[in-house]
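Page 42, continued from yesterday. The earlier attempt failed because a stray header line got pasted into the input along with the sequence. Redoing it now with the clean sequence only.
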Amino acid sequence: MNAQPQTIPQPRTEPVQPQPAIPRWNLALQIAFRFWMIYLGLYCLATQMIISLFTGPVSSLPDPATVWPLRPVISWTAAHIFHVNAPLTVFWGGNSSSTDCMFGWVTAFCVLMIATVATGVWSLLDRRRENYAPSRRRPTRTGRRASPSDSLPGTGLSWTAGWTIIRFIWSFS
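This time it went through. Structure tokens are written below.
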């Protein structure tokens, strides 16, 4: 018998396209990005937002701004910078349950000042950085780039499905 060796067709691979270079951010954009990341992060940490995120709307935990180390800073700022003579209360007046009171305004001012100083420090330490665009994803073991639809480790869920579930659960809180 004459057996002809069969060749297995190899899949064609597409040439890897070079990624476009991400332009360098100008100084104003870098400073604005740094400031808003710090300000929004601190504001969420200093108010009830971060606690509500993890414990839901009903929580017995105090607002982080009402405990050490922020409470003494807020009280000192109210007394020495804003010259508030009345005692600074954290209990919100009326039925609005909002921070539209002196304590809330002084808290926002303190967060603003801390974010301004931290932005200056961050800008000095990270002055050689060109941008804050996400880095390119490394190729996976299969040779292709990872994508948001790849599975979360050990769950079989894709990143997209995971975030959809989180948003669904969050809509009921």
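Notes: Residues 27-133 form one domain.
Reminder to self: strip header lines before submitting.
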